[in-house]
Amino acid sequence: MLEEQLKKINELSFQANKTKDEKEKEQLENDVKSIIFDLKKQAIESFKSESDIKKFLDNIIKFNNYSYNNQCLIWMQNPDASYVAPLRTFNKMGYRINQGEQGIKILVPTFYSVVKIKTDEEGKFEYKPIFALTETELAKYKDKNDDSITFHSEKLSNFRVGSVFDASQTNMPLDEINEKLNPTMEDDRAEGIEDNFIKAIYRDGFKVRYEDKIESGAKGYCDFENSTIVVHKGLSNLMRLKVVIHEYAHSLAHKHLLNNHQDYQEHRNKYETEAESIAYVVSKYLGMDTSQYSNMYLYSWSKDKDFKEIDDSLNTIVNYSKMIINNYEKIIAKNQDMELDESPSMSI
User: What does the angle CA 197 – CA 199 – CA 203 come to, to the nearest 5 degrees?
Assistant: First the structure.
C-alpha cells in the first residue's frame, strides 16, 4: 500500500513537471498533496500510546535533516530507527548494508531555478524557469559580467522516491553511535550552553531578562509586546536552561500571539503543548535529563483533536525544534571560528 502511494506520487510529480497546462499542473500538484496528507494521517493515527509519541519526538533529533513528511514516512516503516542515512553516507563512513536489507522509502524533492530578466521598462522584470531560457539568454545568465539575467529563486519541481537505511541494517557499532549521539549533560555544563542560547535568542530579535521573583509564580514567560523572555533567576542551571528553551520556542513559533492574548487563553493547551514538546526535543538533543517532561501531555491533548490540528502542531514542533537546534549550532560554529582566529599562530 505504502509503496503504491509513493509510486503514485512519483508519477504525478513527473507529469506535473512535464505539462505546460497550468490547470492540469495545479490539479496534479493537488493530487500529490492529497496523497502526502493521507500518508501523514496514517502515520499519526498509528500512535497508540505515550511511548509512540516519545519515539516520534526522539526521531526529530535523530533525523534533523529530514522534513516532517519524511519523518512520518520513516516512522511508518521503522518507528525504532536510530540513525538513518542514504547508502552512500554509510559507505563514506566505512560501513556496509547487511545482506538482504530493504531500504526505508522517503520522498526526495527536486528543484529548478527561476531567473529574473530585466525588461526594457525601468524597474520591471520577467521571470522564467531556467529550462525555458533560449541559448542566448542562457549565455547571458552564465556570464558573470552580465547582470541582465540573474538567479531569483528555486521552485519545487517534483518528488522522486529514494531509499535510506537505519544503522541497525548495517555493520555500524550501535553502542558507540548511541554514546556519541546521546551524551549526558551535567548541571555544570548548562550555564555555558545557556549563554549560547541567549546569543541565538538575541539574533532572533528577543532579549532575555532575569528576575528574582515572577508575580504569577511561573518559572518564566515570553513577553511578546517587549520582545523579551523573562526567567526566574533562582533556578538551578539545568532548570533555567530548560525554561529558556521553552520560552525561546514560544518566541519563534507563536509570534502571532503578539496582539491576540485571547487566542492564547482559548488555545493555551495547544501552545503550551507545542512549546513543551519543542523544549523536550531540544533538551534531548543537548543530552539533558528529559524524564520530567510529560509526553503524555501531548498524547492526551492530541486524542481529542482532529487530524488537521494535530498535523499542524506536529509540523510546528518538527520545524521549530530543527530551527532552534540549527540556530544553536550556528552560534557554536561562530564561537569556534572566533577561537581559531584568536589562537596564536606559529611561523616556521
Answer: 115
**Does residue 65 sit in helix, strand or coil?**
coil
> Is pLDDT of 347 > 60?
no
DSSP β-bridge partners for residue 126: 117
| Burial category of 72 from C-beta neighbours within 10 Å (exposed 0-12, middle 13-18, buried 19 and up) | buried
Give residues with Cβ within 8 angstroms of 56, minimum separation 6. 47, 71, 75, 79, 314
**Chain segment 209-267, per-residue pLDDT in tens:** 999 989 888 899 999 989 999 999 888 888 889 999 999 999 999 988 877 778 888 88
Interatomic CA distance for residues 280 and 324, integer angstroms: 12
What gap in Å lies between CA 178 and CA 281, rounded to an integer? 16
In angstroms, the CA 55 to CA 43 distance is 12
Q: What is the CA radius of gyration of the chain?
A: 24
Q: Can you tell me the distance from the alpha carbon of 36 to that of 311, in angstroms, rounded to the nearest whole number? A: 12
Domain ranges of the chain: 187-340
CA distances (Å), origin 247, targets 71, 159, 185 = 25, 36, 20
Give dist(CA 30, CA 35) in Å, integer. Answer: 9
Task: Give this prediction's pTM.
Answer: 0.77
